[in-house]
Structures are given as structure tokens and as C-alpha cells.
Amino acid sequence: MFLYIQEVMDVSGRLLSLLDQKQVRSGDPLFLKTLCDTFLHLSSDLEAAYKEYLANYSQVTVIENSYKQKEQLWNDIIKIIKSSAPEVNATSLSFFLVMPVQRIARYPLLLQTIQKHTEPSHPAYSLLEETAHTSIALNYRINEYKRFREVADKYKKSESLSIRDKINRLNTHSIAKKTARISQYLKHETGMVPKLVDEEFDALEGFFYVLEHGILLLLENVEMYLRHLQSFLACKTEQFDFDMDGEKEPICYKEITTALLQWVLPSFEKRLRTLIHKPLCCLRDLLVGPRNLIRKRLDKLLDYELIEAKSSLSYEEQAVANNYKTLNTLLLNELPQFNGLALQMIWSMLGTFSCLHRDLASDMEQLFLGFAQQLPHSAVEPAVFWEWAESAVLEGARRLETLCRSVEETLNAPVAQTLSPSSQRRLKQLMDKHGSGKIYQVTVAVAGTRDLDLTLNKGELVAVISEMDTRGDKRRWLVDAGGRRGYAPSSKLIRYHQPSDDPPPSPHLTFPDGAPGLRRHSYTVYTEYRPSSVSTLPLFQVFAAYDFTARGNHEVSLHAGEAVRVLEPHDKRGNREWSLVEARGSQRGYVPSNYLTTAPTSLAPPGFRSFS
To answer: With contact defined as beta carbons under 8 Å apart, do 427 and 572 qualify?
Structure first.
């Protein structure tokens, strides 16, 4: 409510102080010259203070009316006003706040009255005339600025209206106006009529949108940075027991991590939010006003172009032209200031961001120096230390890579699931129609996002019709889902192997009469074949009973009769339908367990190749 009142009081006090310093009486011949020189000297300061106060004065009435709605508060305000200034009998705050509005308008009247009663032959008459014209021009510029601000306040507000509210606002006039704008815009785009070009404004508009993009991108990155920092702070690794009591390294690690997570990093996060994130959010909110004014200027420009060629304008058409010119002038005057201040703020925040990280590095360096002497490698030469650090990092990277491969093998291990009756019927239908070699299973749920895409559940069976789409993209396969046909990502499909308890006899295996039968997937101690004439257990060999072709890096291809070494009789999830084996050439991978068989080494099949 008292916004800019201090500036008005300061400039008025300076005007009075300069007049008092001259110590010139009203009857002195130099009095008029002193008065005019003082006013001209402060005219720019008077304009700067009063134009902001008058532009904001409309808010005074709004705020005062809101106070009047609260009876107790308003009674307290009136009581304070009457006790502070009983001689004026004021009944509201606006009684005092309207005085600067009246004062700036009286300066031209006072100077013109003095001019009226001054002889033209007076030495200061020409200076007085100039001062009177200056006061009139000053009031004119203040009124224009106030009008610009009113137009800006009217159009820069962003309203969130529902569809019903927008429909209720429609009338014959608004529909005709919007239709005319769309027609004019289409004429511009098709080249039927030339567009009114303002190169100065176009440059300012382009720079504004570049700044807006940069501000929003910087804010997005800062928010992402803060989220990552919060995730790091949430990891309380120092609370875990490493079972390494008495060793210096874990103790130092716990103390350093505790200091980082409880003091250093929280302080850094608080400063980052206060000095970077909060100003960026405010700057983002300030972009709304100029953006709305720029869009509204385009609408007013389309309206103005429709009446520009007319020789005489009606009252409404003149108002349309004035609105466009006012908006255009306002943006040309204030958009460069906004762009400059916004750019200055961005550079300042980037500099602050760098300073925050410099302070963080300094705090962390001081923290680590306090524990450096306790670590075992603190006394070694820098070259030796960095050589050790590099080798330790490489060793850790190697272990991490091994772990990642192990996890990948675990995740990619084939999964055999028991089929429901409906899935078994679909499997039979698809196999009868497409054959067993075309049956695939969905590894993860698939949600269709494009035309002709299928939405499939995990474990669902499909038959592959084509291993590419119509554009030749091999990442999308055409599949049959039991009546529904469409595309599915190939990366989420895996060939389906139907579990079989009793596969057909292998044509590559022959056994003499009376020999014990072969046991599939028998990797434990052999107890069924115990010849009475032999007191020790015979040796057995595992080999492939059927040909198998690998479908991925986690599987290995085998030929019937090829010897293998079983590393694990199950996959990583304990499923015994798949076994991890090592074939010739140290190739490792998974194969179906029912594709493997065992036989005594003396009963090796024809063409048997021993594994060594």
C-alpha cells in the first residue's frame, strides 16, 4: 500500500532542501530564477518517483477496500489515523496517499499562474516558460506511463478458465473478431498479404524466447541436481556395520561420511536452494507477463492490419489502433530492460553456482585433511600413491564389470512357467497354425504405443509371422497372439521351449542289449547301475541328446552327441528346466536340461567326441 511512497518523499524533500539552501526571499530578483533552476534540475527525478507511485496507486484503493471488510482491523486503523493527525479529520489512509497524485498535477497550474503574473520583460521569464512546459510534459509522460501499465496489467494476467467458462464468454463480437484474426493469419502464412514487419521488436522477441528456454532448462537441471543430492543424502551408508572393527580405513570412512551427510552437504543444499533455486523459480514466474503481452501484441497486430489501410477510422477502430500502438511501444521500451536484467540474473546465478561448488570443495578438502594422516597411504610419494589409486580403481572396475555380467546372465536366464489351460489351448492353436519354431514368449509386459501395436502380458505366448515391420524395422515383429495380430518389440520376446518330461529317443544313441538305460539330467552320484562284478562306481559322461541352437549370449549351441561339462544343474533362479554347461572351446551358456543325457563312458554313442 505504501509502495514507492518513500521515493516520493525523498525527491520532495530534496526539492525543498535545495530551495532552502539558496536562502532567497520571494521579493529577490533571483528568486524566480532559483525556483526554475531547482525544478528543472530535479525534473527527471520527480518523473521517476511519481510515475511509479501513480502507476501503483490503483492498488491502494483495492487494498484499502479489503481492509474495510475486516471491521476490527479497520476500526484500529481509523483510531491510529485520528490520533496521529487530529487536525485534518482524516477518515481513511487514501486521504494521505492521494496527496502525491494531486501534488504532481498542481505543479503545471502553479507555474502557469506565476507565469501569468510575471512581466515578459522579467530576466527569468523565458526560463519560467521553459519550466512550465517541462512540468506539462512531465505530467503527460507520467500519464502515458500509467496508461501503459494499465494496459500491461490488463493483458499480462493469465487466466485458467474451464471449457464451460470459455464457451460462456463467446458472443457474436468475440467470434467475429477471432474469425477475422484467423483469416488474417492464414493470409500471412499463405503469402496472400504481406505481414507488418518490425525488425526491432522481432529481435527483442527472439532474444526473450532464447532467455526463456535457457531459464527453464537451467531450472530443470538445478531441480534434477537437487533430487540427485537428496537421493545421495538418503543413503546412510555410514550406519551399516562393515564387520571390520579395529581397522582404520572403515573408521575414517564412517567419520568422513557422517560429517558429509550431516553438516557439509545439508549446508550446501540449503545455500543452493536459497541462492539458486528460489531466484530461478521467481524468474520463471516473471516470464509469464512478458510472454502474455507478446502473444497479445500478435492478436492486436492482426486487428490493426485489418484497419491500417482505411483513411478514416471509427471510434472503436481508433481504440483498436491505440491498443496496438500502446502495447508495441510498451514492449519496445520495457522488453530490453527485462531481457537485460534476466540475462544479468542468469550470469549472477551461474557465478554463484560456481562459488558454491568452490566452497563445497574447500570444506571437503579441510574435512579430508583432518583424516589424511590416519590413512595407510598418506606418507607415500604422490606418484606412488596415484599409481596405487589407479590400479585399485581398475581392479574395482573389473570386479564391477564381472558383477554386471553375472547380473545380466541372471536376468536373461530363461524362465519356464507352468502354462494355464487357456495358454495351453493357445499354444496348441499357434503350433498347429505356425509350427513350433515360431512360438515365442513375452518376457516383460508390453504396452502398445503406436498404431497396430499389441498390448501383451508377461509370459503370454505369440507366434512370429514376420521379423520386421512394413518399413523394414527389425525391432518390431509382426506376431499372432491367438486371433489378434499386431506388432511387438523383438527385444521383449524369447523363443519358447516347451518342457518335455519324456523326449523322443535320440537317433544318435545306441546301446547293447542288457545295458542300463540312459538317465537324463543325472549329475548326482549314480546309484541305479551297480554291476555285481564291479566294486567301484563306473564313470559317466554328459552329452547332448539333440541339436540345440542358441538364441542369445546367455545360451550355447550344441550338436547331438557333443560332450559337455555341467557347471550348474539349474539356472540362477533355481529352475531345473535349464542347465549351465561348458562345451568345447570353453563356451559357457544355458541349454534345456531335457536335451542332455548321461551314459557310461564305455557306452559312448557312435561319433561320440570326448570332452577333456
So the answer is: no
Tell me how crowded residue 36 is: count the other CB atoms within 10 A of its CB.
22
Q: Nearest to residue 469, comparing CAs of 446, 449, 483, 490?
A: 490
d(CA 543, CA 414): 21
Taking the CA atoms of residue 11, residue 14, residue 18 and residue 21 in that order, the dihedral angle to the nearest 10 degrees is 170
Residue 338: pLDDT band with limits 50, 70, 90: very high
* Residues 249, 251: Cα–Cα separation, whole Å: 5
With beta carbons less than 8 A apart as the criterion, state whether 284 and 219 touch: yes
Question: What pTM did the predictor assign?
Answer: 0.51
Pick from 582, 400, 600: nearest CA to 509: 600
Q: At 258, is the pLDDT very low, low, confident or very high (cuts 50, 70, 90)?
A: confident
Residue 129's nearest CA partner among 218, 40, 29 is 40
Helix (H) or strand (E) holding 464: strand 461-466
- The C-alpha cell at 475 is 525391432
Which phi and psi (to 5°) does residue 374 adopt? -85, -10
Over range 268-280, report the average pLDDT. Answer: 94
**Which string of DSSP letters, residue by residue, matches 307-332?**
HTT-SS--HHHHHHHHHHHHHHHHHH
Mean pLDDT of 78-83: 88
Q: Residue 30 has what DSSP assignment?
A: T
534 pLDDT band, cuts 50/70/90, is: very low
Task: Give the 3-state secondary structure of residue 169.
Answer: helix
**Contacts (Cβ under 8 Å, ≥6 apart) of 106:** none
Burial class, 208, CB count within 10 angstroms (exposed 0-12 / middle 13-18 / buried 19+): buried
For residue 327, give the nearest of 361, 355, 362, 302 by alpha carbon. 302
Q: Which uninterrupted H or E stretch holds 359?
A: helix 315-372
485 to each of 438, 454, 463, how far by Cα in Å? Answer: 14, 8, 9
State how far the Cα of 171 lies from the Cα of 507, in Å rounded to an integer.
87
Type and span of the H or E element at 488: strand 485-489
Of 596, 502, 591, residue with least CA distance to 551: 591
CB of 553 closer than 8 Å to CB of 604: no
3-state secondary structure of 441: strand
Are 551 and 495 in contact, with CB atoms under 8 Å apart? Answer: yes
